[in-house]
Amino acid sequence: MATLKALVVDDASFVRDLVKRTVRQRFPVIETAEAPNGRRAQSLMSRTAFDLILCDWEMPEMSGLELLQWMRQQPQYQSTPFIMITSRGDKDHVIEAIKEGVSEYLGKPFSPEGLSRKIIKVMGRRLKDAMERKGRSLEGPADAFKESATLLTQKRPPPEDPGRAAPARVATASGRPPVALASIRFAESVLKSVIKDINLTEVSLVAKRDQDFPGILEPAVVDIDLGEGQVARLNGYVHQLQAVDKRQDTDFVGVIVRFVDEDPQKLEDLSRFVARFRAGPR
């Protein structure tokens, strides 16, 4: 029976499922509940005492930062660990979260190993003791889930700074179709590619084969330049990998990333970009 309780807060059900699965497989002493936004999380936290909050930043109705601000004003949650899991990894947002009392900050996309390390760090002795009472060790060998995840997401050396990957930028030439260059961020790599097609549910990309490619179902963040200094960070996962040419030594690989965000603002931003992409050069 679980002895600790964690609340997973994210507007994307795919991300919530990934976090819950990681927690369940790595820390069986932690029971998880979920909420699609800060407002729903606030309601759950008022009725149930949670030992850990794993929360996204950008959500409809109430953001992760607003939930953190409210939480730190509640006597029962003033010292409860709060891990912000978000694609907003720039310095200003990290500083803002720290000022409001965040315990740890984890950038999207993340690996199960990265999330596990953050949980161990913020839960400390309390988690260690609970695991030992169940005959489990935090330092033990990789479990079945971790091993299977490694098969899907091959180990790669991290890039210099994945959090600052260049956003997708539209560059057009007179009389030619629009060319949208995209840098798709993964937990341990960045894939330089060209957007072949995009709609409200997925983006189709083409990338050179000489790069480190993600695995099927690996979480991803697509940064799209909206113009005027605005960038939309769209969360998704790798749905398909396919050779562009019908030969084994093809130089290019096609990648399809399915979007998982349910935030109305992100969908509105994506709609504007899709319309601009399909309009082509003027």
From TrEMBL:
Statement: the UniProt record of this protein carries the keyword Phosphoprotein: yes
PROSITE patterns according to UniProt: RESPONSE_REGULATORY (PS50110)
Name of the protein this chain belongs to: Two-component system response regulator
Keyword Phosphoprotein: yes
Record domain Response regulatory: where: 5-123
Organism: Marinobacter lutaoensis
InterPro entries membership: CheY-like_superfamily, Sig_transdc_resp-reg_receiver, ST_Response_Regulator
PANTHER family attached to this UniProt entry: TWO-COMPONENT RESPONSE REGULATOR, TWO-COMPONENT RESPONSE REGULATOR ARR22
Residues where 4-aspartylphosphate is found: 56
SUPFAM superfamilies on file: CheY-like
A matching Pfam family: Response_reg
Origin: domain of life: Bacteria
Example GO biological process: phosphorelay signal transduction system
Alphabetically ordered keywords of this record: Phosphoprotein
Sequence segments annotated as region (Disordered): 147-172
